[in-house]
Amino acid sequence: MSASDLWLTYQSTVAFVGLNGLLALSVYTTLSCGQLSLAQAGFMAVGAYASALLTLHTSAPFPVVLLAGALAPALLAVPLGLPVLRLHGVFLAIATIGFGEVVRIFFVNLEATNGALGLVAIPQRTSLPTIYLALLGALFVLWRIRGSRAGYALEAIRQDETAARTMGIDANAYKLSMLVLGAAFAGLAGALDAHFNFMVAPESYSFGRVVDMLVYAVVGGSAAFYGPVVGAAFLTLLPEILREVSGPLGLEPGPLRLFVNGLVLLLVVLFLPNGLVSLPRRLRRWRAERRGEAYAP
Amino acid sequence: MLLSLSDVRRTFGGLKAVDGVGFQVAEGEIHGLIGPNGAGKTTLLNLVSGLIRPSGGEIRLSGKRIDRLPSHRIAALGVTRTYQNIRLFPSLSAAENVLVGSHLRRADPLWKRMLFWPSCRREEADAAEWTAALLARVGMAERAGELASSLSYGEQRRVEIARALASAPRALLLDEPTAGMNPTEVASIAVLIREVARAGHSVLLVEHNVKLVMDVCHRITVLNFGKVIADGTPAEVGADPGVIAAYLGSEA
Amino acid sequence: MGQQIANGVFLGSIYALFALGYTLVFGVLDILNLAHQAVFMLCAYLALFLVLHLHLPMFAAFPVAVGAGGLLGLGIERVAFRPLRGRADSNVSGLISSIALATVLEALALQLFGPDVERFPFGIVPDRSLRVGGAVISELQVVIVAIALSMLLALTWLLRRTALGRRIRAVAESPKAARVLGVNVDRVIASSFFLSSALGGAAGVLFGLAFNSVSPDMGRAVELKGLAVIILGGMGSMPGAALAGFALGLVEVFTVAKLGSSYRDAVAFGVLFLVLVLRPRGLLGARALREA
Which of helix, strand or coil describes residue B115? Predict the structure, then answer.
């Protein structure tokens, strides 16, 4: 393999790490206030289609296209959120899964966008720096929220929503804002992805997609805002590394990736519930206990 | 009158938990709410703080109706509370818990945060000072950085009170703040409650410790089976035959 | 019209069977087992394997596959749910760990069987058609509906009339109270998973036969429909799941007849959405989430 071939393969993996990181953050935003929302695949689809249509039919500059990709699903999140955020736990998860599927089916049936075949020949306007700029932007926003009055309000809602309300925290408004923010992140990722992979097709935005996003967020750790990005990086890189092994063993890359995702998620949920980012702390504690010392975090 | 309840009713299924309750709490008054188990005291607190809606009747704060408002609006109007089974945020420190309580007093717009606006630093420092002062008031200054879940029971109660005071409320609802405490701790809570009232807050105190209530309260309302059976000063209530009858045979 | 009804009942009986398994576990544990669809899919493959490679007749392969489904359910409970039992957020973490397990099982199926659709061999099941009041029904359809209905009835009998059924209902009501009364809650939960997954596996085999198609992703589509069914019927309500299963089958068939097949799935989610927003406890559901 020549050097330029190597870069090409390497480049797309790095791109996916960035995109998956952004997608993981879109699930994290709602998890951070205690809501399990699984509508993000639908939001991603809306962002992808909106931006692709703009590129294909207008001469809008790329930043505008990306902005549209982030805004379209963000606006959609409001009428979704108002009725749905009254629900909790499993019910909210199911309602948002349903929403995501409705969006997908909508696009499958939409003549104007070629239905199930989707849009193709989208010029590649996304570059690695753009992806990472977007990711860093999202991380920045989340970083600044943490430790602020809003950040504490979100944490309070996550730990005890009822008690938070009796302190004057408007939980509904905060939850809706996080849903909208997550939708914007997912839409932005969708727009970037569409202009990186040349195409948009409804099958890329299925329930399986949002499960992937959830896996990144949970595996990385949803207590810290950078956790999901760590999870995304880990789970995007791991199959690439395993690919070296899979060939000789006769394992297909598709099933292997799925298997790795599932297994890692299972192990994390069972043994490391606060995700990979909590691993250093856990190891320190374990080592201290081993030596018979008291551990003070 | 700061807080007035008239003919407040609440049914659950067929059960009348609160059945036509009315009383009033003045500014700066410590008002006790006592009664045997199941008399409807906690339900009443839940009604006043907006966790549940009344099935009938009115609750007014300085004349303005609050009984159909969501709980965060009621808190914004100046009513905060503590909980019978202590609901601190477990993975936040004592100081952070109180900081959350000061939510209503703070102004920390996110756009300023994004732009690293200089006033953010100052606002944060002010909030930290306010929090520290409140913790000192309840005697928890040295334990400010401890995780709420690692505090002792009595300490948690005091942090919860500090948290409820953090928004400078007009009325503070306390739900059995001395449950499970020894006499020394009860005495220090009594001192704290008197001090809170002197500082201008009204207190609605739900309690099982009748002695504490008699000592500390200006007026007392006694409930049984969701109805008011007595309302007056500690002396009046203590001598009321209906109250004595209600308490005979139940753990007081 | 009669044809639509017949098709609707047929489709609905499979949905009902699948949803029953979901709702049984939810009723007992307050947890949604999203690995249910993996059992659905794997049992279909098992039946196919038994028929194709071991040359078992269908009436023997079916019970074996169903039993295997039950055993798989025991495994799922042991691995994905029991370790999380004490945790505060066990509803959500159980949901996530079941998703994880489902992903692993789906990956295994993909690796072992490949992504293509497999079919049952010709002639494995009776294929004659009957004409009943203006509708054309195949013998296979009749058999499937009969099996589904008898399993529904068997489950109802088990829950109403047997000691195990009483214990299951007690734990569904309140695990703490049941434990105090001497019920072995762990054993009851395991039994519920066995029954639930057996039903899911049965639904899978029947589905595979009905549409003569077995593929690793067959579970995904039905899983989401199943969610719509249990929400519509009311989480934790078994009569609700059965009723809603048939209702959805009928509504889907009529939708396809009037609007074309591209909207059939949208119906399920539309219903799901409306129910959650307007009446979250569904048609026959009693409660939202139990207070432990």
Answer: coil
C129 strand-pairing partners: C138
Q: What is the pLDDT of residues C141-183, one digit of tens each?
A: 888 888 888 888 888 888 888 988 888 888 888 888 888 888 8
Q: What is the 3-state secondary structure (H, E, C) of chain A?
A: CCHHHHHHHHHHHHHHHHHHHHHHHHHHHHHCCCCCCCCHHHHHHHHHHHHHHHHHHCCCCHHHHHHHHHHHHHHHHHHHHHHHCCCCHHHHHHHHHHHHHHHHHHHHHCHHHCHHHCECCCCCCCCHHHHHHHHHHHHHHHHHHCCCHHHHHHHHHHHCHHHHHCCCCCHHHHHHHHHHHHHHHHHHHHHHHHCCCCCECHHHHCHHHHHHHHHHHHHHCCCCCCHHHHHHHHHHHHHHHHHHHHHHHCCCHHHHHHHHHHHHHHHHHHHCCCCHHHHHHHHHHHHHHHCCCCCCC
Encoding tokens for residue B65?
Answer: 């109706």
pLDDT above 70 for A297: no
- Beta-carbon separation of A207 and C289 below 8 A: no
Is the CB of B169 inside 8 Å of chain A's CB atoms? Answer: no
**b/e sequence B198-212, b meaning 16+ C-beta within 10 Å:** eeebbbbbbbbbbeb
Q: What is the DSSP letter of C79?
A: I
Strand partners, B80: B172
Alpha helices in C124-263 (DSSP H): 139-161, 163-173, 175-180, 185-210, 218-233, 238-259
B133 falls within a domain: no
The pLDDT value given to residue B218: 94
CA distance B94 to B86: 13
Question: C280 in contact with A at a CB cutoff of 8 Å?
Answer: yes
Contacts of C178 (CB under 8 A, 6+ apart): C167, C170, C171, C185, C188
pTM, entire model: 0.89
Best mutation target, A214, A269, A271, A274, to test chain C (most C CBs within 10 A): A269
Longest dimension (CA), chain A: 68
How far out from the chain centre does Cα B9 lie? 20
User: Which residue in chain B has the smallest CA separation from A223?
Assistant: B91
Q: Given this model, what pLDDT does residue C290 score?
A: 47
Domain membership flag for residue B145: no
- For residues C198 and C70, the answer to whether their CB atoms sit within 8 Å is yes
Look at chain B and report how many structural domains it folds into.
Answer: 1
Contact A152 B80 (CB under 8 A): no
Of A94, A105, A259, the CB nearest to C104: A259
Please enumerate in sequence order all residues whose Cβ is within 8 A of that of A264, keeping only pairs 6 or more positions apart, or say none: A215, A219, A234, A235, A238
- Comparing alpha-carbon positions, the chain A residue that sits nearest to C97 is A266
Give residue-wise pLDDT tens across range C229-284: 888 888 778 888 888 999 999 988 888 888 877 778 888 888 888 888 888 777 77
ipTM above 0.85, yes or no: yes
Does the pLDDT value for residue A270 go beyond 70?
yes
Provide the token pair at A89: 């736990």
The answer to whether the beta carbons of residues A83 and A96 sit under 8 Å apart is no
Domain that holds residue B32: 3-78+169-247
**Residue B210 covered by a domain:** yes
Q: What is the CATH number of the domain that holds B214?
A: 3.40.50.300
Residue B159 in domain: no
Q: How far is B39 from chain A (nearest CA, A)?
A: 23
Q: What percent of chain A has pLDDT over 70?
A: 95
Would you state the structure tokens that stand for residue C168, as one six-digit string?
């299951």
Chain-chain contact of C269 with A98 (C-beta, under 8 angstroms): yes
